[in-house]
Write a structure and sequence with these properties.
Distance between the termini: 28 Å
Helix content: under 10%
CATH architecture: Distorted Sandwich
Number of strands: 19
Number of helices: 0
CATH topology: Beta-galactosidase, Chain A, domain 5
CATH class: Mainly Beta
Low-confidence stretches: 1-15
Mean pLDDT: 87
């Protein structure tokens, strides 16, 4: 895919800036996935990059949003994405049309070292629809033996989760509900130093958070935030804002 030069992104699927601390690239042909969030200080892609020949390549790696019927069941059918007419060097807006008629509108804005995203799911059909929208990024922080997840619970208390533990499989998943959810921020930290991967969200918008990890064939940590799921009347919307970046 053609990428823009620094400072331009109008009518393209890339967003770059000379003045901000990161750059991103968006791929409409891969389900509207963002495949690059480049930390411009070190030139590193913050997102995991699966091999193009990998099984289920279209659904692996990067940063993506998906519509769901509830917290578990993904909405059937495909979503067709397009770049809206207006764009700037640091901001684009996108529209996704779901096969069942729902609309997804996304705003992506580069702000220093963060990519700020806002997603609006709208019931554009003539009947009520139960829905939620989920935003997920997959990152590769290196050897998971030295990597931890850190956050504070909404109910209070700090959490530091190790991904690799003695005599346990080097992969797993967890679901966080209610007060067990992160209190608006969670971080993937390599204790040997270097980048820290940071994701922030308004906790009142989150209905459930998901975590999965693997160190089997590669090192990957997946963090997903789901909006509160509810029934949408025709024309009604739900909103989810999540920021992504590094420190």
């Amino acid at each position: 895919m053609k990428r823009t030069s620094p400072g331009t992104c109008a009518r393209t699927a890339s967003s770059r800036s000379k003045t901000t601390g990161c750059a991103c690239t968006w791929r409409p042909d891969l389900g509207g996935r963002i495949i690059h969030i480049i930390d411009k200080a070190g030139g590193r892609n913050l997102l995991a990059e699966p091999e193009p020949g990998a099984k289920q390549y279209r659904d692996l790696g990067g940063l993506r949003v998906s519509p769901y019927i509830d917290y578990v069941t993904r909405m059937p059918g495909t979503t067709t994405w397009s770049l809206d007419a207006w764009a700037s060097a640091t901001e684009v807006s996108l529209t996704g049309t779901c096969q069942n008629g729902l609309k997804i509108r996304r705003r992506l804005r580069l702000d220093g070292g963060m990519l700020r995203t806002e997603t609006i799911l709208e019931n554009a059909t003539a009947a009520p629809v139960t829905a939620a929208v989920q935003s997920q990024w997959d990152v590769n922080p290196g050897d998971l033996a030295s990597v931890v997840l850190r956050y504070r619970k909404q109910a209070g208390g700090a959490v530091e989760k190790e991904f690799i533990e003695p005599e346990k499989m080097p992969s797993g998943s967890e679901i966080y509900n209610g007060g067990d959810q992160p209190d608006g921020e969670w971080r993937v930290v390599n204790r040997q130093g270097g980048l820290t991967w940071v994701s922030r969200f308004p906790k009142e918008q989150a209905g459930r958070c998901y975590l999965s990890w693997t160190a089997k064939s590669d090192n990957r940590v997946s963090m997903a935030v789901s909006s509160v799921g509810r029934s949408l009347r025709p024309g009604e919307q739900l909103r989810l804002a999540v920021d992504y970046g590094s420190e």
